[in-house]
From TrEMBL:
Keywords: Signal. Residues 1-27 form the signal peptide. This is Uncharacterized protein. It comes from Arenicella xantha. It comes from the Bacteria.
Amino acid sequence: MSYFMRAKMTKFLSLIGLLMSCAIVTAKGFPDFPYSKEMDVLIVANDMQVNGIRMRAFQFKTSKDEAHIVDFYKGEWGEEMTDVLFGDWRILSHRDGDYLLTVQIEQGDHQLTHGTMGITPAFKLAEQSDRKLAKLQKSVGKDFPMLPSSQVISDIRSEDLGQDSQTLMFSNKQSIRQNVNFYLRKMMSDGWQLLGSNAEQAAELGAFALNKGEQKMNLSFVRDQGVTYGVAVTLK
C-alpha cells in the first residue's frame, strides 16, 4: 500500500471504529463483499489489523453517481442497511453474521465517485471478550519507542504483496523538535540510517525517512493546540 493510500485509509479506519462493537475473534474467513459491476474495486489490504482487530479493506471508484452506489446496496441489503452521514462521508453498513460490512462514499463534486469498503468481525462475541480486548489494546503500539506520556491513537498493521507494514499514529505534549531529536537518537542508536536530510533539516521539516537493511520508515509530525501528532509508517 502506498504512503498516500495509507494516509487516506486512516480516516476511514477511524470511522469504522465508531461503528464497531469490538470483540476479540479468531476469524475463520471473511464473507464476500458484494459490489456493482460498475465499480472498479482494488484490494487495499487482504488481511489487516487495526488496534488488534482483524479487517479487510478495499477502495473503489466508478463513473456512476453516489445514488447508484446507494441503490445497489439497498438492493443487496434491504432494510438491514444503515445509511448515515459523517463529515465528508456517506457510510452504508450491514451486518452479515459475525461481520460488519461498511461502504464509505466520499462526498464532494468529483468526476468519479470513489470511497472505501471494509469488513470487520465486529459481532462475534466470546467469553471474557471485554477482558481480552482490554489486554490486547494495552499492547497496541508497545513495540515502538515512545516519549513519556505519549498516547497511541491507532496501530494499523497489514501484509501487502508479501511486505509487512505498520502505520502508527500517536500524540504527546512535547514539541516537534523534541520528538524529532528523540526519534533520531533512538532509531540511529538501533542501527537505522537517516536518508536525504540532516538532523537540523528533519527538525525544521518535522519529517524524515530512515532505513535499516530492507526496512524503511517515515516519521512525520504536526502540532495543533499544544499537542504534537506523529505518524510512523514502517515497511518490513
